[in-house]
Each structure stands twice: as structure tokens, then as C-alpha cells.
Amino acid sequence: MTKQIETYLRALKRQLWWRGVFDADALAEAESHLLEAVEAGIRRGLSAEESERQALERFGSVKVVAFAFEKERNTLMQKLLLAIAGLAGLFSVYVDSRPHWDDTGLLAAGLLLVSGLLTLLGHRRPWLIALAIGIWIPMYEIYLSRDFKFLVILLIPFLGAYVGWLAQLGIRKVFHPA
Amino acid sequence: MVGEALKGHLDLLLLAVLADGPAHGYAVIEALRARSKGAFDLPEGTIYPALHRLEDQGLLKSTWSEDSARRKRIYQPTPKGQQALTTRQTEWKQFYKAINATVGI
Fold this sequence. Notes:
The complex is a heterodimer.
Chain A: H1 3-18, H2 24-43, H3 48-59, H4 62-73, H5 75-96, H6 104-120, H7 126-134, H8 136-145, H9 155-175
Chain B: H1 2-7, H2 10-19, E1 23-24, H3 25-35, H4 47-56, E2 60-65, E3 72-77, H5 79-103
Antiparallel strand pairs in B: 1-3, 2-3
Helix pairs in contact in B: 2-5
């Protein structure tokens, strides 16, 4: 494999990783494709260098290809993060409903941290993560007291989710500016 | 322009190309380009996520071939994929008839 293709594949691997796509087969396919395209170019009479340049150009920039993978493949990751958010929310209402539990601060910190972590890990809809984690305790409290003031609890996961989301965007911008 | 329009119909095109026989990604892209006389010219790397998605949906299956000097992932339609191709071909015919009738071609 040539230096140019090796560099491209390394960059593609990094881009995919940052976008939450972990797929060794995709990289193996990209490598196989590029080498075949280079060979075809040489058979058409191009120099090795020109053939490589054209093969990489036709394959698409690292960002374009990685974005296409992210768009098509990351839905599983999104669903997984959302499912974790839902389970964390259910766990929080279970803890909150225990008769001897009175550490509201710890629970609030937990909601804040988990919602922030899930958006930092790559969920693209902070409001959905916040609702999936945070809706359960207000629903439980409203059910018990018929008092809608408990909806204010939602502010905690919303804060966490948006801070995590902004941090995720910031990290991407720093390491992979558009 | 053609590239952008193509994106909405990529699944149909990929299934149609693979209906002719199993092929690896590079061959699929070459076939797409040849059949369209060069009009369908997307960044080649963006075809692979679409192939993977079709496989996730059960419309294609793939195997790694070790026959040649290089490992290649060979795709072919599943029975569900063949059914999907027939459905999408029918939908496409209805669509272009309606468009042609509307624009007066």
C-alpha cells in the first residue's frame, strides 16, 4: 500500500472513530477499493502517482465518506444511547421512590452527569436524552401529589444534556474543523 | 445535479445492479457509472454505507471472497431484496409516468 493511501485510510479511521462508527470491515473495503482503482488507472496508462490521486479523488474526501457512514450507520448507536437514557431514568425513579432515600442532591448530580455523558458520547438530540432520563421522576411525583411544579426537575437533565452536546460539538470542532 | 437527484434513488439502483449477479463494491460502482454513461458519479466511498445499510435491512447479504489476490466483500440480493427491487421498480414506473404526464413529456 502506498503512503498516500495509507495516510487517507488512517485519516478515515480517525474520522469514523470521532463520529462513533467503529467498523473494521468498512476500512478493509475502502482499502481494497482504492488499491483496485489504482491498478485500474495504471492499466489505463496513468502513472502510479496520478492513478492514486484520481482514485482518492473519486472515492471522496475523508469527511464526506465518514459523514455518509455516520448518517447511515450511527442510528444503532443513537438508539443504544437513548435506551441507556431511558433505563437510567427508570433507575432514578426507583431510587427516588425508596422510603429511606433522601439524598436529592446525589440524585440530581446523577441525572446531570448521565445526561451530559450520553450526549458527549454522541447522541445528536439533547432534548430527547433529557426527556428520556428526566421525565420519570416528575411523572412519579405528579402522580403522587398532583402537583405539576415537579416538572422543574426536568431542567437538570436538560442542562446536563445540552452541556454534554456542546462539549461534543466543541471537541469535534477542535480536532476536526470543517 | 444528477448526483443529488441520485441520492434519493440509490437503493433502487444498487439493488438493480446487484440483481445481475453478485459483485463487490468497486464493481457495483463501475456498473453504475457504465450503465448511466457516467451521469451517476457520486463519491465512490459513499456507496459503501448504503450497501451496508441495505445489508442491515436484510435486502443484501455479503461474504468476503479470498479468491483473488485481494480480499473483497461480495454483495448479493436476498429474496427480500429481490422482492424490494420489484416493488421499487413498480413505484418508479408510476412515479416517472406521473412526472412525465405533469411536465408534458
